[in-house]
Automatic annotation (TrEMBL):
Keywords assigned by UniProt, alphabetized: DNA-binding, Transcription, Transcription regulation
Protein name according to UniProt: LysR family transcriptional regulator
Keyword Transcription regulation among record annotations: yes
Keyword DNA-binding appears in the UniProt entry: yes
Gene source species: Ruegeria aquimaris
PANTHER family xrefs: BLR3139 PROTEIN (PTHR30419:SF31), HTH-TYPE TRANSCRIPTIONAL REGULATOR YBHD (PTHR30419)
Superkingdom per UniProt: Bacteria
Coiled-coil residue windows: none
Family named by the database record: Belongs to the LysR transcriptional regulatory family.
Chain ranges of the HTH lysR-type domain: 2-59
InterPro entries: HTH-type_LysR_regulators (IPR050950), LysR_HTH_N (IPR000847), LysR_subst-bd (IPR005119), WH-like_DNA-bd_sf (IPR036388), WH_DNA-bd_sf (IPR036390)
Length: 293
């Protein structure tokens, strides 16, 4: 009988694509990890991993086994949660992949979820929209909070959440403006923006390009914390989601200006894989999302 632990190790290897990192993630030594993978190959009578001096990928048989392994692990996890639900409690881990612009909203969402179901432990991973789609497909995340136009609906359940709009967070010494400001003015400020591969950055780059603008980017970051600190320290302005400013409140030494001409909004949604039966923790999360509307 194949052990679930071996399937967990194989799933981790497929996710990390690196023996040492997968072993560390699973909490065992690399030699022990490699031995269990080899023992699994011997038991099944196939080569799962293409090896040389390092991991080179999965064989065709290995890819099939990983897909099966993830379904089996998902079913085992669902069984544990369903048994707990029969006892009247919804509990277990819930992994959320979230784009950086939606982290503040997700924090409030998880607070509501915890109020309703205190035994659910949520893990929030900041990810790009591309990584979220991949994470849903390979089962490494349970739900993704991402841009509605970046997620495929095939075999996925998509729930609209809110419309993302943008404001300019700018140091007081850089402007006297107090009201709405056009995007053409934004390009005049030194800016700290997200990295080019992030969907939010692609949205902003498209806005600037459509207006023939060439923004003065002085720093790039993978999240908004550094951008907001730079604005507070008077080093650069930042284009940030309005929902983030609402969650954190006013920042000393900065002003928040609505962006217009054009007014831009992007739909944010929650996406999960369609499965039957559904994980109880996901059903609970979906109920909380519905209650927010």
């Amino acid at each position: 009988m194949i052990e679930l632990r071996d399937l967990q190790l194989l799933s981790a290897l497929a996710r990390h694509r690196h023996f040492a990192k997968a072993a560390e993630d699973c909490g065992i030594s690399q030699p022990a990890f490699s031995m269990r993978i080899r023992n699994l190959e011997e038991r099944l009578g196939v080569t799962i991993v293409r090896r040389a001096n390092r991991f080179q990928g999965l064989t065709e048989e290995g890819e099939m086994i990983v897909r099966r392994a993830r379904r089996i692990l998902g079913d085992a996890r669902a069984l544990e949660q369903e048994v707990a639900a029969i006892r009247g409690e919804i509990s277990g881990a819930l992994v959320l992949g979230v784009i950086p612009t939606a982290l503040a909203f997700t924090g409030r969402l998880v607070r509501r979820l915890h109020q309703a179901h205190p035994r659910i432990v949520a893990r929030i991973d900041s990810m790009s929209s591309t990584a979220i789609q991949q994470g849903l497909d390979d089962g490494t995340i349970d739900a993704g909070i991402t841009y509605g136009d970046s997620i495929g609906t095939d075999l996925r359940h998509v729930q609209p959440l809110y419309e993302e709009t943008y404001v300019l967070l700018v140091p007081d010494h850089m402007t006297d403006a107090t009201g709405p400001i056009p995007w053409s003015r934004v390009a005049e400020f030194p800016l700290c923006l997200l990295e080019p591969q992030m969907q939010n950055r692609r949205i902003l780059d498209r806005i600037f390009a459509e207006q023939g603008l060439h923004p003065r980017v002085v720093a790039e970051t993978s999240g908004f914390t550094a951008a907001m600190v730079m604005a507070r320290e008077g080093l650069a302005a930042a284009v940030v989601p309005r929902v983030l400013v609402r969650a954190l409140g006013a920042l000393e030494g900065c002003r928040v200006l609505q962006l217009v001409d054009p007014v831009v909004s992007k739909p944010i949604c929650m996406a999960t894989l369609q499965r039957d039966p559904e994980l109880p923790v996901l059903a609970a999360l979906r109920d909380v999302v519905t209650s927010l509307r």
